[in-house]
Request: fold
Amino acid sequence: MSQVTLSIRYLRDEQMLLHQGGLYWLSIDQVGDAEVLGRQFLGALEKVRSATLVCCAQDPKQLVAKLDKRLGPVELRLFEVTEADIRLALTSLPLELNRAAVARGSPIVLILPVVSWQGFEILHLQRWCENMAIWLRQRACTLLVLCHGQAPKLHADLIRLNERLSGLAQLYRRDGGIRYQLNYWHSYLGVCSTQEFELDAQPDGFGLTQIERSNPQPTRIEDQRLYLTLRSVLEGAPPLSQQWHLFENYDDLFFEASRVRAATVIVGVTSNLQVEALAQQLYDLRERCGSSLKIIVRELASCLRYRDERLLLSCGANITVPHGTSLAYFFSLVDSVQGQIWRHSRTIDFKALLERLRPPVERGVLSPHRFIATLDQVYDGAAGEVSHQLLKLQPRNDLSIEQYIDQINLRRFGDIACVLDGALYLFLFACRADGVAPALRKICRLPWNNLFSECQFFSGVDGLPRQAFLDAQNTPVSVYLAATTTDAGSVSNSQQHAYAPQRTTLPVTEYCP
Reply:
């Protein structure tokens, strides 16, 4: 028997050859693409061969009318099944092919819409595949099923029937391109699985794109078109397609997400108190599912700090979507992460990462010695997940230390300062360079440039005059800040260092009637 092939240009033989007696299934989103691929397959058959084309709910003559007369088998037998008779024809297909006297050893093409399989449960579908496989082996025929329309559940069932099918693949359009996803494929040359290719569409059929031919072909996973999302993230909007699965709670979402490998998982966050627990879940999910999984965190209320974002990204998120992003633009961001591979290190220790990203339990004005010791603690354990800002602020000449210190309010844990040689050294934990100016506006009660004449940046603790800090006398008690308020949720153990109330008696200086 001569070779039978899909004839997709530049695809390797082991990825498109069909063996004798095999049952191959291609799920194709658009009917037009199914027709093009059907003609491409028929056109590649040698002229000495006889072939059979069965079309359900469409005229086979119209399909082959565009086939080059110089191509294809010498004899091409055409059969049409009406829409009303499709289910009956599928159930009795081996008998119908016997009645049609299909030639032994000939290839058969079956083109039908996906709605034809409505009502076929997994066991019914399994029996159909088994019966067809037996008939094909007995007659040494090869059957290619081109099923057009979207049916994620049907395709998921077919993946489980890998012992009954000889090959399974998908052809769909996305982001302006044509994707051919090969789930598994048996041929005389061996077995291929979990690969995806980008195709070009030409009048005579499909072929690999120039970029695809020049680059190594990546391994793909069959669930990459699935979207698993928390229902609240969509703001009441319905699922965009059958590939979208909505969940009411995190437990169900993460349970299902733990079973996929390249799907898109979308979660929401409403408070920074959720961040560390969510980061642990993302870390575990990424460890289990690998780097092809796409994880998106949407901020449902304005709550994520820079440190929180970096923690989530380091633990597995591909992207965080800020609060206030419109739903339409959110969907655009979801599309933008498709095909991404998570590139962060997968060898990090979660507890060590959490400790690095937790601010020191210090705030306000410290002594120079304590200030430099705190900086050593932060920078010695840093691994690049977040950036910090270290500044030297030179006060204006007409201000005393007490005057400009009184205008500064450091509330966050990790934001510390000290006075050395009349200058204010300020450290901002987990702060980007573009966040310095907004931070200074919050820290200073007056405009900061009215208090200070110069601002100098240091890249790290090594740029400081260390010996001067170690030799400096303690800062006078009068310039220490009594930080009486903190941002909620800044550190988990902040209550251990909260101020305790003390009883006191106030003298009465005048009579109150």
Observations:
- The first strand starts at residue 4 and ends at 5.
- Residues 352 and 462 are 23 Å apart (CA to CA).
